[in-house]
Amino acid sequence: MTRSTARRPVVGIIGNMSMLNDSYPVHAGGTMNTEAVAQVSGCLPLIIPPDPNFVSVEELLSLCDGFLLTGGRPNVHPSEYGEDPTPAHGDFDQCRDAITLPLVRACVERGQPFFGICRGFQEVNVAMGGSLYPEIRDLPGRMNHRMPPDGTIEEKFALRHPVTFTAGGVFARLLGADHVMTNTLHGQGICRAGARVVVDGHAPDGTPEAIYINGAPGFTLSVQWHPEWNAAADPVSRPLFTAFGKAAAAWAADHSPMRISAEVA
User: Fold this and answer.
1) Which residues are known to be catalytic?
2) What is the pLDDT of residues 182-203, one digit of tens each?
3) Nearest to 247 by CA among 213, 219, 212
4) Which of 45, 67, 75, 196 is surrounded by the most beta carbons within 10 Å?
5) Residue 255's closest CA among 68, 107, 56?
6) Which domains does the chain have, with CATH numbers?
7) pLDDT at res. 24
């Protein structure tokens, strides 16, 4: 059996800063993100340290064909949308903000694909000038969208509420349904949608759950839930990661060194 030597599109998976054994700092990414990118999107997963001391947006744009903006415990710093931090805003990672927010804006301008998940969904909104609620469950009429504190990982990532899409909209066409069931593991959510941010799906309590950037030339879909869980088998997750992989492959084909050299020649 021969192994294909064809180059897979490279997807930069935005990592998170965390502490291993409460004392050793690491840049890390969840294996379910890696599995979804490699096995469903068909791309080469590359975990990115989200810190401008080590990488630049320009380097990432030239290295990767697409980006997965992952979830993460720290939140986007409220100064990024003109507000002061409060205890309700939780922890922050301003190094990640310094990479992801300009990266989103650059990808929108260039047409380079990205897929935002949870914190990544919120980053996309903030990058486009939007704002966030610090704690959804404290708002009148809203449900608790946070991860259950107890149970197995299967129970924590279990489907918990429906999302309703705009009839005939981008997500409804891609998924072939106006309603789907999703998990929910977030505390914050969109308050004011950013410029060109189209909210294409909502939870039953009105919380925005699915967005894209209006008029962007590339793939900009983002979701507030975690489709990386069970991505290969889930009927909602699989089409999302498959479409993202196709977009990354199209970018790679259009920006391959051989094609660029041929065009220059």
Assistant:
1) 118, 226, 228
2) 999 998 999 999 999 999 999 9
3) 219
4) 67
5) 107
6) 10-264 (3.40.50.880)
7) 82
